[in-house]
Automatic annotation (TrEMBL):
InterPro entries: BABR_hydratase, CruF, CruF-like
UniProt source species: Halolamina salina
Name of encoding gene: cruF
Enzyme class: lyase
Single annotated GO MF: lyase activity
Transmembrane annotation, as ranges: 30-52, 58-79, 86-109, 129-150, 162-188, 200-218, 251-268
Lineage of producing organism: Archaea, Methanobacteriati, Methanobacteriota, Stenosarchaea group, Halobacteria
Protein name stated in the entry: Bisanhydrobacterioruberin hydratase
Length: 284
């Protein structure tokens, strides 16, 4: 079934459930964006250190459920601008993520030889079935944040695309060392906290393809308007900074921690994370 076929035909029905989902996210912003990544970081570290018994340690369903909850602000934030063209783009990117990961696991290209050490949800052919849930939000989050930070410069294709590609790469500078420290996957060694430089060369390729497809299939004007109206659209990026910045700090990966802090500073510049995110200060 095409991804586009999932979209409701009745615009009124679609608007009603999008509004209901937005309100649900809005009412639970702090829990989703702060509590979930904090609990996730603690549970992942406890699993890696052998402090949690089976079947709690690295429970794949718990990991996947937690990721989906943390992704929910991004998904709900972007949904109103997902037309059929954008949905087909998401489907193409999902297929691309599977293809490049299967090639990577099988051949070692383009990231370098690696293998998964933990099941990130159900696995098929050595690749997580939910891989797009892990990969695509990196691109979407980077794109949205760059739209806000670049301002009118985002209207120019080259600065926009280069900035998003650079931010996706920066996010992997945070993600991969933390994931290796936890044992999510291993490269068998590497100069950057156990990660080989070939991984980042591969990410330049992956990020470039994904960002170009995202940029070509989503309506940038509609995305910008939605960003102005949706205060929680970047909350998933908050979760990313807290979870992976925290994991890297525990394992002494200080350069990734610094990069996470820089991304966090960029988020603060968007002026989205004020008292409205705190339930006890918002009168809830």
């Amino acid at each position: 079934m095409s991804v586009a076929a999932w979209l409701p035909d009745d615009p009124a029905d679609r608007r009603s459930w999008e509004a209901a989902l937005s309100e649900l996210i809005r009412e639970h912003r702090f829990t989703i964006a702060v509590v979930f990544p904090a609990v996730g970081a603690v549970s992942l570290i406890a699993s890696a250190e052998g402090w949690l018994p089976e079947p709690l340690a690295f429970n794949p369903l718990f990991v996947l459920a937690g990721v989906i909850v943390m992704r929910s602000p991004l998904i709900v934030g972007v949904l109103p601008v997902v037309d059929r063209r954008a949905a087909l783009g998401v489907g193409a990117l999902a297929a691309y993520s599977y293809a490049i990961e299967i090639v990577g696991v099988t051949t070692g290209w383009p990231y370098g030889q690696f293998e998964y050490g933990v099941s990130l949800g159900p696995m098929l052919g050595g690749v997580p079935v939910a891989l797009p849930v892990f990969f695509l939000p990196l691109v979407a989050n980077a794109y949205l944040l760059c739209l806000l930070l670049l301002g009118t410069l985002a209207d120019r294709a080259l600065p926009r695309l280069l900035s998003v590609i650079a931010l996706v790469l920066a996010m992997d500078v945070v993600l991969d060392p933390g994931a290796v420290a936890l044992g999510f996957w291993t490269y068998g060694g590497g100069v950057f906290y156990g990660v080989p430089l070939s991984n980042y060369a591969g990410w330049v390729l992956s990020a470039t393809v994904a960002v170009v497809v995202f940029d070509a299939t989503f309506d940038r004007t509609a995305l910008g308007a939605r960003l102005e109206a949706c205060e929680f659209a970047l909350d998933d990026m908050v979760s990313f900074v807290l979870l992976w910045g925290g994991v890297n700090a525990v394992y002494g990966n200080w350069l990734p921690v610094l990069v996470a802090a820089v991304i966090g500073a960029g988020l603060l510049r968007t002026d989205r994370f004020d008292a409205g995110m705190l339930p006890w200060r918002a009168g809830r």
